[in-house]
Amino acid sequence: MTTITPSSLPRRRPKPRKLNPSFRSVAPYLVCIGGFLIAWQIVSLVLGVGRLPGPINVVVDTWDPYISQPFFDDGGTSKGLGWQILISLQRVAMGYGLAAVVGIGIGGLLGLNRFVGKGLDPVIQVLRTVPPLAWFPISLMVFQDANTSAIFVIFITAIWPIIINTAVGIREIPQDYTNVARVLRLRKADYIRNIVIPATVPYVFTGLRISVGLAWLAIVAAEMLKADGGIGYFIWDAYNAGGDSSSSQIILAIVYVGVVGLALDRLVAYMGKVVAKGGN
């Protein structure tokens, strides 16, 4: 007969400690972004800091004044990146806001009127494939002003996804809804307010979300060609100025552009969720 003692019992393996929930939520960002920065620094050392500054070099070269003083103003176009971003955002707000109003209106017309929608579809498909900067010379000839031309480029770039998604959203309204509206003999205004708008909100905000990214891309490119101030102007001016820190300034500005673009995308997505919940 075998005697069982406590020491002869199989030992239970200690359970691994679970990570703190707050750390688990940020761990993917820390690991992936940290890995990206390390890889970037290694590539910089391989190619040479003069050709591609690493993240450490970018911070050191641009700390004073571009990082430490983002809102300095020495007059003229010599401004910090904070002011340059605000100048670009002001142009984007005007062009994008106008595109949203006009685009939703035209998209609604195309969705509600099949005849007009079918007739204008080839025109829209042709115009929406024109690169944003191809509109810039025409707008300069028409408006004779660089700032107005940049706003027009944003408008003409951002409007097409809004038109298309709004029209598609209306066309995707279930036929049952339309039948109920006919049975109840809803007036056109009531039909649009109670059925069309709630049903098309997700489509409209999908178009708005796509458009805000295109608008931000367009303004940066337009400001590189001809503008007084703005983040695109800053990038092109740093390139033309040359110097040891010019490449670091350009990379820092690109980081600013990306972060602001991400913020704009998240803002429009959040507004879409709020409006959709309010409609429900």
CATH topology: MetI-like fold
Which ranges are low-confidence, i.e. pLDDT below 50, for 5 or more consecutive residues? none
Distance between the termini: 73 Å
Helix content bin: over 70%
Keywords:
280 residues, flat, mainly alpha, 10 helices, MetI-like fold
Provide a brief overview of the structure.
By secondary structure, the protein is mostly helical. The protein has helices at residues 21-47, 55-67, 81-112, 114-127, 135-143, 146-171, 175-184, 188-225, 231-241, 246-279. The protein has a single domain (81-279), classed as Orthogonal Bundle (MetI-like fold).
Which SSEs are present, and which pair or pack?
Layout (H helix, E strand, L loop, with lengths): L20 H27 L7 H13 L13 H32 L1 H14 L7 H9 L2 H26 L3 H10 L3 H38 L5 H11 L4 H34 L1
Helix pairs in contact: 2-10, 3-4, 3-6, 3-8, 3-9, 5-6, 6-8, 8-9, 8-10, 9-10
